[in-house]
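To illustrate the input format used throughout this study, we show a single complete record. The first block contains the structure-token representation of the backbone; no residue identities are included at this stage. The design step must infer an amino acid for every position from geometry alone.
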């Protein structure tokens, strides 16, 4: 299992992470990225790599 954290102070809502996540884990909620399907996370860290703000961290739990 993986835990996805979005730092909402850093997130600009650009949707890069949402558009590139292969498992549709992330959605835009109130203008910020939010992990709504965390159980589906593959731990690939694509979201971490594409986020221009460094707002996402993925940890194995
Ligand atoms: S680690 Fe991969 S599967 Fe998990 S939220 Fe990020 S892009 Fe999606
Ligand atoms: S890529 Fe980063 S800044 Fe853009 S919506 Fe996702 S978390 Fe927010």
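Output of the design step:
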């Amino acid at each position: 299992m993986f835990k996805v954290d979005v730092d909402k102070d850093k997130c600009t809502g650009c949707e890069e992470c949402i558009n590139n996540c292969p498992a549709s884990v992330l959605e835009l909620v109130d203008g910020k990225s939010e992990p709504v399907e965390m159980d589906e996370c593959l731990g690939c860290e694509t979201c971490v790599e594409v986020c221009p703000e460094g707002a996402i961290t993925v940890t194995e739990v």
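Structural context for interpreting the output: The CA atoms of residues 23 and 40 lie 6 Å apart. The domain at 2-60 is CATH 3.30.70.20 (Alpha-Beta Plaits).
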